[in-house]
Amino acid sequence: MPQRPVSGFRFTAKWSGTPLVVEDMLGEGANGAVYRVRTPLGRAAMKVCTSSSDVAMEWSLLTSLGQGASAFPKPMFIDDGPAEAPFFYVMEWIPGIPLHQVMGNRDFGTVVKAFESIILALMNLHAAGYAFCDLKPENVMVTHEPSGVAIRFVDVGGVTKFGRSVRQYTPLCDRAFFGIGSRKAEPSYDLYALLLGLASGSLSGQSRNLAKEDPLRRRRIVLQSMREFPVAGIEMMFAALEQHNIHDAHELWQAWNQLPERARRVRLNPSRRRKSGASSASTQWSPSGTSGTSGTSGTSGTSGTSGTSGTSGTSGTSGTSGTSGTSGTPRQHTYGGHRVRKTDWTEWVMWASLGSAGVACLAAWGVLLGWLR
């Protein structure tokens, strides 16, 4: 097993002669580990690989993508070192908080802004003909700048040219794991990874258990998690992606900005699926609003009693059947933290009809008993 550099480890790069001091490990991936180091120019990030071919490939990608306004770190130099760091390259160190930690802190306002920034970053990456592929929340660093929330990508190891097979992926962010599509590097692969990464945050650490399930069951589980995500628009975008209404980051950006404001913001009281009654029906988000569940059929009224004059009492009117859509169940609104029930016009009609039937019934009894002449 190869040795690893520990905190405080000092060495000099073989070819450039640059002195480096390891501070701590930032993360580990399929191709190696990333460390924060001190250099004569300040702090930087060092990616250590055990294979010279891996470090050469990543360095080539980084020098191609990490320039200009790219979301990837800026490359500094590539070199060799001692047994603890045989092949490595040094790049810009990006301070910030990983997206999965932001999600764990339930700061979903920041998550939404990061989501929007990721879409824009993917537009630039896809324009260069590459897919990120391993787009998990751990590989996205969130920073707060004067202009607002910004994101940076911190791992170039999985970046793959369009049309090739995905080399690195994380199961919970992999559409093929959920039986939704292939592992082919293309724009839609990154879009699925982005949405699945947000929705499966509550499933973190369960990939082994999910691996025992069939893909259809996995998909149902992640869809349930997506329904409970505090931003309704995430589920709506996933549905549009599955229906092939969205194909790339540009279309995702357009569709997202066409949503109503409420769908793109955090719900104060995220709705949970109830398991009983009419609420068990499937509900889908759509740009026109939330589709309701079927209403409950009303109960028949009480038949009137025949009076002395031989006129039969007025029969009670049957309850109004619930209609599908938003009119099926009276909507509820939240004011000051309390849920307020909003009654629709069909319920008023029902109560008016029942009231009329009651008055007619009393009149019939009055005639029968001689109270009314």
TrEMBL record:
Q: Which portions of the chain have biased composition (kind: Basic residues)?
A: 266-276
Listed A to Z, the keywords are: ATP-binding, Membrane, Nucleotide-binding, Transmembrane, Transmembrane helix
Region entry Disordered: which residue ranges? 266-338
Where ATP is bound, by residue? 47
Q: Which organism is it from?
A: Alicyclobacillus mengziensis
Q: Which residues cross the membrane?
A: 348-372
Q: What is the protein name for this chain?
A: Phosphotransferase
Q: Which Gene3D superfamilies match?
A: Transferase(Phosphotransferase) domain 1 (1.10.510.10)
GO MF term set:
ATP binding; protein kinase activity
InterPro entries per the UniProt record, alphabetical: Kinase-like_dom_sf (IPR011009), Prot_kinase_dom (IPR000719), Protein_kinase_ATP_BS (IPR017441)
Q: Where is the Protein kinase domain?
A: 20-286
Bias category Low complexity: which stretches?
277-329
